[in-house]
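FAQ: What does a ligand-bound record look like?

Like this one, built around manganese (II) ion:
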Amino acid sequence: MIDLKKLEVWFITGTQDLYGEETLKQVAIHAEKVAKSLNDNSKISVSVVFKPIVKNTDEIFETLQSANTSENCIGIVTWMHTFSPAKMWIRGLNVLQKPLLHLHTQFNRDIPWDSIDMDFMNLNQSAHGDREFGFMVTRMRKDRKVVVGHWEDEEVATQIDTWCRAAAGWHDWQGAKFVRFGDNMRYVAVTDGDKVEAEMKFGFSVNTYGIGDLVAVINAVDENAIQNLLKEYEETYQIADDLKAGGARHASVYEAAKIELGLRKFLEDGNFKGFSDTFEDLHGMIQLPGIAAQRLMADGYCFAGEGDWKTAALVRACKVMGSGLAGGNAFMEDYTYHFDPANAMVLGSHMLEVDASLASGKASLEVHPLGIGGKEDPARLVFNVAGGDALNASLIDMGNRFRLLVNEVKAVEAEHDLPHLPVARVLWKPLPDMKTGCAAWIYAGGAHHTAYSQNLTTEHLADFANIAGIEYINIGAETKINQFRNELQWNEMFYK
Ligand code: MN
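The answer part, i.e. the structure of the complex:
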């Protein structure tokens, strides 16, 4: 979907003029070697670009300023190989707009016990040079990620990549356009929010288009394109005979294909990264987009139902962050509970629109009535979703701030056929347990809509929230409800 290797993080090594030419030459050689090693590491999904070492206020300012304006630079990694007096960094850090990772490493992994002398000590000063830099960033109240360890340590590479992916999701949001067909579902609170504040804070815009604008594009779709897509449906999915060409109910599938092509064209023409619609506003559409939304999501477009632009945007960010990893990122809704005390779990689904990238095994294309919306029976893909570690994330407008809420879950394989439930579905157990997980979610004001991820960790989401400068709340294995409620109350004070 997105080639993360096209994106760059700049590797910037701080030092100073004091050391003389020989030492600075050595610093530059070492820094380039570290940058190259990170760039070549298969764990790191973006390009790591070495930048000439910076020795004074002007060089620092100019390098950080050009990072700001470089189109492909999604963030900077800083390292103080030697001592770089941090007042020199104030001017540069003051203007820095890109995410910052501070790599606290050292060129030599081990102390050379037999040969160590004062020259070695003067060259390998990260232990105190990085503390000087760290103080300045903290003193300036700037958010950043600190990663500690030797640069050849695979855990370090993984942590750097996690942050790079978060920075890539953030980069993708800058200037992103999302469409909202119609308004919010009537009277619904959590899906609504402040779009002006969101654009100021997050960099993406959400604008509305009348459903008639989309219907016009759908009605102009080319007949050959519809026939080709219908062929693709038949080759890709299990599909009943009466839904195939010539079958009694083929018209429903035909209409769904037409909707998919129209929607896709609308998104492509407008350079949109995703959309939201609502079943209350579908004038001129024959059926609600089911399979269309499912397949567009699998191709990287984001979607959330009922006008929920916040969840749609979050789904898009998750898709970018998880690009190239096994597993999917999808729009999800907590739907129904299984309260068996021995085996409590949540059944997640939506009316129709569950992302086809989550499907385990071949999906089945089916047409069934929808008890809501008053339209003709929509076509949708029905499938189960694999078990394993996953998470649900919700972006909430708290009025004075945005909150990113994450609950780690354990997805479980469906043990039963659900012959009368013709929608895609997922089963999961919230951590730390059903009662605590659900109570904490509700105390934190989490939505029923979420971005469901099979391949991101809480560290990706925490890094993302940190880059966005918003509140991050986690519900996981360690969550205790009293402590959690305290955290929410303390945060109220912090954000006042
Ligand atoms: Mn919904």
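Follow-up question: can I read anything off the structure? Yes, for example: Residues 21-40 form the longest helix (20 residues).
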